[in-house]
Write a structure and sequence with these properties.
Blueprint (H helix, E strand, L loop, with lengths): L5 E4 L3 H11 L6 E4 L11 H16 L3 E9 L11 H8 L2 H7 L6 E12 L3 E13 L19 E3 L11 H14 L1 H11 L1 H14 L18
Parallel strand pairs: 1-2, 1-3
Antiparallel strand pairs: 3-4, 4-5, 5-6
C-alpha cells in the first residue's frame, strides 16, 4: 500500500521533531507543511487549534494535524491562554510574574492542544495539561529585559524550581513525565490503536485530490461561525 501519511501544518521545526519522534513507532509517516495560517484571537488554545486545523485541511486536502499551546492562569480568568506567545514577545515572561503577584493563587497550567482533521472537516482533539505555578520572584537576568521563555517562570507540580533552573536529573525526570502525558503521545497512541481509521482517512483523501498537486491557498480565510 502506498502510504502518503499525515501532514503537520506548522512553521516550528521543534514541534515537528516532537511529533515525528512519537509517530516513529506507528505505521504512518509525518510530513511538515510550513503553511502560514492566520490565527483567531482567542484565549482558548483548543478553539484556536481547531480553527487553524480546519483551515489547513481545506487548503491541503489531506489528513492534517495542528498544535496550539497556551498558559491557563485561574487567577487571571484563564489569561493569557493562547495569547501567551504575543504576550511573551511584547512584555516578556516577567510580566506574568508581576500579574500573578496580585493574587495568592499562583497556580497555572501549560496546555497543549493537538487537533487532527480529516475529510468532511471531521475533528479529533488531544489535549494535555502540565500543572504548576508561577514563581514569586523575577529572575535577575530577566529584570534587564524581556524574555520569551516560559520555562524561566514556570514551576511544575512536584518541583520547587522553575523548569530552566531544574538540575539535570530533575529536568530529565520532568521531560520524561511531560512526554508520556503529552498531546503528541496521546495522538500517537490513538493512531496505534486505530490504524485502520487513519489508513481510511488517507485513502479517502487520495481519491479526492492528487497527492502531487500543490496545496492551494487563495488568502480568503472565513471567520468560524458559532
Amino acid at each position: 500500500m502506498t502510504d502518503h501519511g499525515i501532514l503537520f501544518a506548522t512553521t516550528s521545526p521543534d514541534k515537528f521533531l516532537l511529533a515525528k519522534a512519537e509517530m516513529s513507532g506507528t505505521q504512518f509517516t509525518l510530513t511538515r507543511s510550513p503553511l502560514p495560517i492566520p490565527e483567531i484571537q482567542s484565549v482558548d488554545p483548543l478553539h484556536v487549534a481547531v480553527y487553524k486545523a480546519k483551515q489547513a485541511h481545506a487548503s491541503l486536502g489531506r489528513p492534517v494535524i495542528v498544535v496550539d499551546s497556551g498558559l491557563d492562569v485561574p487567577a487571571l480568568m484563564g489569561f493569557p491562554g493562547a495569547l501567551l506567545k504575543p504576550l511573551l514577545e511584547r512584555a516578556g515572561a516577567c510580566s506574568l510574574v508581576r500579574m500573578a503577584n496580585g493574587s495568592e493563587d499562583r497556580s497555572c497550567a501549560l496546555v497543549d492542544c493537538l487537533v487532527y482533521v480529516t475529510g468532511r472537516q471531521k475533528v479529533r482533539a488531544f489535549v494535555s495539561r502540565t500543572e504548576g505555578r508561577i514563581c514569586r520572584m523575577v529572575p535577575v537576568d530577566m529584570a534587564r529585559g524581556p524574555s520569551s521563555d516560559i520555562r524561566t517562570i514556570f514551576i511544575p507540580d512536584g518541583y520547587d524550581q522553575t523548569i530552566s533552573n531544574l538540575p539535570p536529573s530533575d529536568y530529565s525526570r520532568f521531560i520524561k513525565s511531560w512526554t508520556e502525558a503529552s498531546a503528541y503521545r496521546k495522538f500517537a497512541d490513538w493512531v496505534r490503536r486505530f490504524p485502520g481509521v487513519v489508513r481510511s482517512d488517507i485513502r479517502r483523501s487520495s481519491k479526492n485530490r492528487p497527492f502531487d498537486a500543490p496545496p492551494g491557498f487563495d488568502g480568503a480565510w472565513k471567520w468560524p461561525s458559532g
